[in-house]
Design brief:
Blueprint (H helix, E strand, L loop, with lengths): L1 E7 L5 H17 L4 E6 L10 E6 L4 H9 L2 H4 L6 E6 L3 E2 L2 E2 L3
Antiparallel strand pairs: 1-3, 1-4, 2-3, 5-6
Length: 99
């Protein structure tokens, strides 16, 4: 099983987010071996992300909490709230995944 982590940026953080975005990307890439999938949420009218989704490959909830709370975007208050839910593959890469 894995954990799905979602977050949405707080209001008024766009300029600060642009300043630290590379640090966030570096953090994600350093943890790529733990990530099933990761990406941003985009508003319909813009091409800059305002939140995101991470599917973290762990069975331990605390590892998911530690991952997201060490993300530079969380540490720099780009987002201050997140959700963590257990997630299990059903369809993956266009194919059903047997239980």
């Amino acid at each position: 099983m894995a954990y799905a982590i979602t977050f949405t940026d707080d209001m008024g953080v766009l300029e600060r987010k642009k300043e630290i975005r590379q640090t966030h990307i570096d953090y994600v890439m350093q943890n790529a071996h733990r990530i099933i999938a990761s990406g941003g949420f985009f508003p319909d009218e813009d091409d800059f992300p305002n939140g995101g989704l991470i599917l973290l490959d762990t069975d331990v909830r605390q590892e998911a909490i530690d991952y997201i709370e060490n993300d530079p975007f969380f540490r720099e208050a780009i987002f201050t709230k997140y959700t963590i839910r257990r997630w299990k593959k059903f369809v993956f890469d266009h194919k059903h995944v047997p239980a």
